[in-house]
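FAQ: What does the model actually see?

It sees only this:
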Amino acid sequence: MYFLAACLIVVVLSAAISYRRSRTLLRNPQGRLAAFLPAFCAAAFALGLIGFDRVQGTQEFGPSTTTYLLMLVVSFFGGWFLGIIVGLPNDKLP
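And it is asked to produce this:
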């Protein structure tokens, strides 16, 4: 239960930070890439953790430490992406 609360805190904090950054960075093309860069890094780190978990195999019952780290990374990615979407200027939406 505490871990899920930690994941929720990570989602909220990363969404708030990315929302504040997206308001200033999305005004020019270089800023758009800079706004999405932490989300791309989180995605690459998550893929590395998935690969590490596959190579490691199953050694015990229940979630492993790699699974917990992957949940935190996915929480960060989701929050960051949510903050970017909310912070988009109205003329950039479809």
